[in-house]
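Contributing new complexes? Match this layout with phosphoenolpyruvate.
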Amino acid sequence: MSGHGDPIPMMSQRGPALCGEAHVPGDKSISHRSLILGAMAVGETMIEGLLEGQDVLDTAKAMRAFGAEVTDHGQGRWSVHGVGVGGFAEPAGVIDCGNSGTGVRLIMGAMATTPITVTFTGDASLCSRPMGRVTDPLALFGAKAEGREGGRLPMTITGAKEPMPVRYTVPVPSAQVKSAVLLAGLGAPGQTVVIEQEATRDHTERMLAGFGAEITVEESDEGRVITLTGQPELRPQHIVVPRDPSSAAFPVCAALIAEGSDVLVPNIGLNPTRAGLFETLREMGADLTYENPREEGGEPVADLRAKFSPDMKGIEVPPARAASMIDEYPVLSVVAAFAQGPTVMRGVKELRVKESDRIDAMAQGLRAAGVEVEEGEDWWIVHGRGHGNVPGGATAESRLDHRIAMSFLVMGLATTEPMRVDDGGPIATSFPVFEPLMTGLGARVARA
Ligand SMILES: O=C(O)C1=C[C@@H](OP(=O)(O)O)[C@@H](O)[C@H](O)C1
Ligand SMILES: C=C(OP(=O)(O)O)C(=O)O
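Output block (do not edit by hand):
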């Protein structure tokens, strides 16, 4: 089982207004998919702006273990020489996906219709997350999985020798499950159909079309019906990875709560399946604008300008929006603490099976910092105290969860007393330049 080395305690405190430009790294979801689909194409895919976070580096390493040639050309430029659909070789060792749910679940899908046997593992966080949601549909293709009780890693999967195409309705709103089934469908003859009742991020569908697969999406009474024709020859692509809205969330939210701030976060992908946080913040009264809106590589993109917003109000976040901001609830709960009145978040059970139980991790840290939080299995309410009234002065546990660590460090920029996190190490999984980027804006964030 992999680990993260020694804990890196960190702290943050109030200081000068944040100002300047925050150039956040490439999108994590799109970076994983670029490497995996690049490895399944025939020929050389070029990727620009790849996120060089640990999660994505672990996926790059895995693609090499399956026989693809993956080369780092420096400054975010990478190439992948793919082996074609069905061309994965059996890796010599265990595939260690570290902290990454996206990495392990998508790779399981990508190998499940090739007759090879692969053992997967990860860190303590990943080994506690449910994998049955992926191995159940992969079994319908003919893949066999053996793991720990409850469908946990480490787990060994033997891919189907004669895969069957599948029709599958995803039982939880999960882009990882949807994507695993679609990637497995690439190796099966005929049409694989995936139905999702709630729309989740659609990067896999968009990218499969870009690589030349035959894929259609229809809205029906059942939900979004995605039909993929298997066994295509995928054509290599030139991919420019947009900047990650989930990383942009941190400097944006910091600027909203830190007195006097005015921060520009340029070139952020605003795919509607990802942009729910920004919509929510605007409904709360945040001074957040989209400048220079445009299309790039088929995706809506804008420069986000966030200014200090002392008069935000708590709102009820529409549950239908949950999938489009699922990774942003931790940092939203921090902003909610500085708003007036309650922010109600419902339909968010999935937060309990991320890198940590994110409702519990945030509720405990917020309470320790003087903020009242109520919670149930699939909902929570943060009772905002208003700007200038949030005590802080607590040490929060990051629980091997990058988003928890970054959220509490953002919080400390506006609490009366500093905030500390016991381990900032996990931040490197998704946002390795978080600390210099934030200090570059003037934020007092440091190793403690
Ligand atoms: O497909 C993806 O790239 C992701 C899907 C989401 O997970 P679920 O599919 O578990 O909702 C999200 O939380 C994760 O950070 C990235
Ligand atoms: C949930 C996340 O990632 P993953 O599921 O890939 O570990 C995340 O980045 O917030």
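Reviewers usually confirm one structural detail per submission. For this one: The pocket of shikimate-3-phosphate (ligand 1) is lined by residues 29, 101-102, 174-176, 179, 201, 326-327, 350 (CB under 6 Å).
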